[in-house]
Amino acid sequence: MYNVSMRLSNGFKMFLILATLLTVTYYLASHRDIIDADACELERSYEIYLAKGETYDLQRDDLTSEDETIAICEEGKIIGISSGETTISTACDTYTVKVSDLYTAPGIDMNKEYLPEERYTIEENRYLDDVLAYLIDQAGYQSRAGAIEAARFLTLRFPYKLHYFYENGRMEREGMEVDGEGRYYHTGLYLSSAKYAGISASMAKTGAWGTKIYEYSTDQYTPNGLDCSGFITWALYNAGYDCGDIGAGPVPDTYDLTDLGKLVTIDEVKIEDLKCGDLTGLDGHIGMIIGIDEEKIYIGEAYWVNDLQVRIYEKEEFLEKSEWEYVILMDEYYKEEGNYTPMWS
User: Fold this and answer.
1) pTM of the complete model
2) Fewest CB atoms within 10 A around its CB: which of 6, 146, 261, 337?
């Protein structure tokens, strides 16, 4: 009698357990929308900037696009199709995707046209400033990666080539940020009249990149752009590093920016010690390493021979046969590495 009662009691307990599980399962299935909403309470909205044809990998299989004429979703990736703005959604997240043809996906183009005068409107200039700030933030503000991203933007993403422009004179570090005749020392790109409306020129008129202004070193009017140290200090400044307006200018036996990191002569450096974001220089000139792959090193520089450009070297050629005299290892300067890859694609 005892054993029969025990078996009945155990059977009833099992029935209750199964009934409870079925009830919970039914509740979860019928109230999934409420549960999903509760689970997403802490989720946020995000912005993604893409160049036309550029891909952003979210590694998610639940992406849906509000407007597939602007951006599509394939295999967990977002692909920019045409200029405009759309929304990409997941179960919880919302991404505002902004696509533009004002800039490109990163890549080397040896046949860029020079920047035309007054090519960009104030609104387009602001948009490009937003893109630059976004990319630097994604890489890591005040990090090695942020400086690399800034340098890569002008050399790999900006669709025009900037002229080399010898800076006009030396500027005081305190209280002045721009040489009205060429030296640009602000965040963002110098592409519209809004950028120089409050600048007073001491020698000639002011003008954004691409505008012809007086260059005293050559005694002629030439399209405004960047010199070598101007390019590097611009990249560092946009990444959150104020190294001051300390370029060499057209002065012999002057070394640019050599106090920022550890200077190692080219015959002493080891290739495995070099990183993107390190600087490389010679008498009166400076550049930045913006890419390293298994065989080559890529230098971003503003050089009087070919203006703003990327020069490519075989690794052994760079160490043994190039004109570069030293490298500046920048670990102590950057302190933070940020999020970057040795190559951009």
Assistant:
1) 0.84
2) 6
